[in-house]
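Q: Hi! First time doing this. I have a protein sequence and I read that you can turn it into a structure. Is that right? Here it is:
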Amino acid sequence: MSPTSEVMSPEGKLDENAEKENLWSSILNDVQNHGNQKLPSCKQVLVLGDNESGKTTLVAKLQGVEDPKKGSGLEYAYIDVRDDYRDDHTRLSVWVLDGDQGHADLLPFALSAESFEHTLVILTVTMTAPWAILEQLQHWASVLADHLDKLKLDIDLRQARRQHIVKMWHDYMEPGDELDPSSPMKRSSRNLGDGDEDNEESIPLPEATLTNNLGLDIVVVVTKTDYMQVLEKVEDYRDEQLDFMQQWIRRFCLQYGAALFYTSAKEDKNCDLLYKYLTHRIYGFPFRTPALVVEKDAVFIPAGWDNMKKISILYESMTSCKPDDYYGDFIMQQVTRKTISREPEITVEEEQSFLVKQQQLLLSAGAAPPPMIRVSDSPLRAGAASKLDCSKTVNTPGGEGVLANFFNSLLNKKPASPGTPGAVGSPKMAAAATGATPDTEKEKEAMRSGAAAALDRLSSRAVKPSGVDFDASDC
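A: Yes, that's right. Below is the predicted 3D structure, encoded as C-alpha cells:
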C-alpha cells in the first residue's frame, strides 16, 4: 500500500468538518428551542366554594403546610412548583375567595382580562353537606360565568380558549395509549395531522359534554370524603344514595369540561394526586394516573375521560330513584333536633323553715332576735282581752325594751306558796291566801295593766314576727 493511499484528500476533510458542524448546530438549536424553556410565572389558580367547604385546608395541603390559617375576603397564597427534568422552579399563585356572597366583588382582583387565559379554577364542595353539593356547584359556576361576562373579554381570545378546551377533551388519552399507536382506545381524531385543527373541532362532542364551555380549565374537588363513613353509619346512607350523588356531580363536570377529585385531607386521599394533576394541566408535566372509580371516597376522573355511557354504570344500584330525579328530593338534609338546656326546677322552701334559717343568720351575726308574740284564743287577764287583737303579732324595734321589761317582770314574779289552793284565781282570793295587803295587790294590778297597755300599743303596729312565740294567755 502506498503512503499516499492512507492520506485523505483536503476536500474530504472539509466535508467531514462541515457535517460535524451541522450536527452540533442542530443539537444546539434543539436545546435552545426546547430545553431552555422556563416555567411561566404568570399561571394561577382560583379557588371558589362556600364557607366550611375545606378551601383553606386544601390549599395548605397543596402547599405542604400542616397548620393552615384562614383569612377573610380574598386570600393570596402560592405553591412552589419544581421541574426536576429542567432543574427549574416557579411559584404558582393561588387565590381563595371567601364563600360569603358579599365578597364576590373581589373577583376582578383575582381573575382579570389579562389573567383569564392563565387561570385554572377549582370549585370546592364538601361531603359533610351532601344535600347542598349540586346547588353550590351550580351557584359558583353561575357566579364565574357572570364575572366573565362583566370582564368584556376579547371575542377572539374567548373563542380561542373555548377551542382549546374542546381540543383538550378530544386529545385525552388513557395512560399508555400514547405509546401504542394501534391501541383500540385511541380516538380517530388523534390520527389527524397538526394542520387539521379545524377538522378536529368539527367532530361532534359526546352527549351533554361541554354544553357550558367557559373557556377555563375547571377542576371540581369534593372535600372531606372521610365523612362518608359517618353518612353510612349514622345517617343510613346506602350505595344507592352515594351513586346518585356521584352521577349528578359527574354530569355537572361533563357540562363544564371539568375534572373531578374526591379528596380527604384528614386521611390524605388524592391530595398528592391533585397536585400532580394541576401541574400537568398548567405546566404540561407528565401524568400517568388513569381514572379511579372503584373506591367511592377516592374518585378521580380526568377531563376528557368521562361520558354518559360510563356514568350510566352507576344507574344499576338505583332502585328507589331515577337518575333524572331532582337532587334535593333524594338527598335531603337531615333534621337535627337541638337539645334544649332547661334550667333546673327551683322548689320553694317552706315558709317556717325559711324564717328559722333567717333567725339563725341573725343570731350568728350577733343581733338579738326580735321576739314574736302570738295572741291565743284563751281569755286575757287584767282586761287585756278587750284591747288585743288575737290575729295580730308584735315585732317593732321601738317595743323591744318594753317587752324585755315585761318578760323580766314575769320571771321575777314570786310563785304562790305551795299548799295554798286559792293562789290561782281572783286578786282578792290571792291576797287572802297569801296574806298580802290590799296596797300590794293594787301595785300588782297596776303593773299588769301597764303591761297590757304596752302590749296594746305594740299590737297596733301589726308587724309579723320572726322570733320567739309568746302566748298572751301566759300573762
